[in-house]
Amino acid sequence: MQNIKKTVKMRMNIIIRVIIRNLLKVLWIFPVKKDRFMFQSHDSAENYNCNPRYISDYFRKKYPGQFELIWSFKTPRRYRNVKGIKPVKKYSAKWFFYMITAKVVVYNATPVTFIPKRKSQMVIETWHGGGAYKRTGYASKKDKLDIWRTKQLANYVDVFLSSSEKFTDVHIKQSYHFEGEILNSGMPRNDCLVNEKQRSYYNEKIRGKYGIEGKIILYAPTFRGYLMSSGKIDTELPYSEIMEAFRKRFNEPVYILRRFHHHDKNEYEDIEGVIDVSDYPEMQELLCAADVLITDYSSSIWDFSLTERPCLLFVPDIEEYETGDRGFYTDPEEWAGILCKTKEELLEAAEGLDIDKCKEKAVMHRNNLGSYDKGTATVQVAERMIRFMRGSKADR
Fold it and tell me: What integer best gives the mean pLDDT of the chain?
């Protein structure tokens, strides 16, 4: 009976979305404005961050006042002082109007597919992670509503950004059955990790903000959906022991920046030397400052590999994660990090960290996946948007 109710609820959800999409076509009476671009970061629309932010910033600084940059936010008042953008509340009347009349809409997650897309509009999918780690789309275990939304994405998106050859193959083509235009640009959010000047700027910014003089260890685990009900796996770090192990390795002060996934609402105890940065809006800035990354199945593995710095993968639940949640596209042994299945292995890897070997593995990983990240992604995407806006022959 429970499964029947769930199935009926999902089907009704899909039907309602289709009805709304058709009803909203009445707004097509308003013309598309060619210099209006719409942005949204993640389904939650909480922050001005990730790939859409870097594209938006490019237009703000390169073409001040020449484009109307509309941003979808759950709480728009938080961003009313960001010069050059117009924040609107997600699902408000203005939001629907701008969605219908924007020339280009930029997402980094599943698009809002109950909005009817017009032929004169372009939807760009930047996604929110590179590499090829945990499965997504059709390749992951999903309910019928998720599968429906996945199918809509392939039909709704015009341009999909790719970070690597492997990402194109397993994520874009296999997991989303996308057959449209693929822009082999890399990810705009990763330009700062490739560009040494930008990386140095954010490094100094983070160290100044938190008053850090010493090594920075960034701990950034991914969201584990299956643990919400079971809670059987202990993924918390032995913070004090980890800091001591790295102090021995580097012979200088060590700080841990602890950043949890935005879906993880748990509270954790305060520990000296451990700074919670879960609310810091931009992950890439933290990566620029980190001397070592500790993560698990997160796409930050890919991002951080661009710095060629050491990455430790704390994966005590690797068997459960592979069989009980999503599974993997590639063998974890080939990822740009040292696999540590127990806390003892993690401490051993920290104290005996071989920086040169970590660099070699990072370079090999990027080469194996066929990296497109060259530090020019933002410019490539912006130029593609401008060409579409100007209506070049290639866009007709």
Answer: 91
